[in-house]
Amino acid sequence: MDIETKVLDKNAEFFGVSTEQLMENAGRAVANEANKLPYEKWLVLCGGGNNGGDGYVASRYIKNCAVISVSKPRTVLAMKNFRRAKSAGIPVYKYNIEKFKELIDKCDAVIDAMLGVGMKGKLKEPYNEIVKILNESKKFILSIDVPTGFGSENSVKPDMTITF
């Protein structure tokens, strides 16, 4: 997370809005926008940080979706929302290339909640491979905060980005 984002989160907490509530609000807002779009089956790709946490929250509010956990949740809030999604009956799969290709073929649209504003440098695997396949898929892509890989030579090319 970059310094500006940390400052905004701390200011929100000072005014009584917890980071957990910010994540819940962000995920619900993403789901509300996704549910307005003409796509039935969504695939949510979640990274291990709070961007992934936003994706897990969104999955609980999207009518028909599956989730791929690209990396193990690394923050308390990402883990909490990973568990909430599983408890809500959302199909959550650990990333592997075969399952990813299977689900990308079955879905109508994708939510990119892999890496957010804290990403620095070149994309590492499996993100690099996922981004390449995702961009070649021609599926509708909605990115949360910033497209995964933003500022690097290989980034998600979203049709829509929702920022908070």
Overview in brief:
With 164 residues, this protein is an alpha/beta fold. It contains six helices and six strands.
Give the topology.
Blueprint: H1 3-14, H2 19-36, E1 42-46, H3 50-61, E2 65-69, H4 76-87, E3 92-94, H5 97-106, E4 109-113, H6 127-137, E5 140-144, E6 160-162
Parallel strand pairs: 1-2, 1-4, 2-3, 4-5, 5-6
Helix pairs in contact: 2-3, 3-4, 5-6
Structure description:
The protein has 164 residues and is α/β, with parallel strands linked by helices. It has a single domain (3-7, 24-162), classed as Rossmann fold. 46% of the residues lie in helices and 16% in strands. The protein contains six helices and six strands. It has helices spanning 3-14, 19-36, 50-61, 76-87, 97-106, 127-137, and strands spanning 42-46, 65-69, 92-94, 109-113, 140-144, 160-162. The chain has a six-stranded parallel beta sheet with strand order 3-2-1-4-5-6, sandwiched between helices. Helix 4 (76-87) links the parallel strand 2 and strand 3 (92-94). The longest helix has 18 residues, at 19-36.
Task: Please supply descriptive tags for the structure shown above.
164 residues, 6 helices, Rossmann fold, single chain, 6-stranded parallel sheet
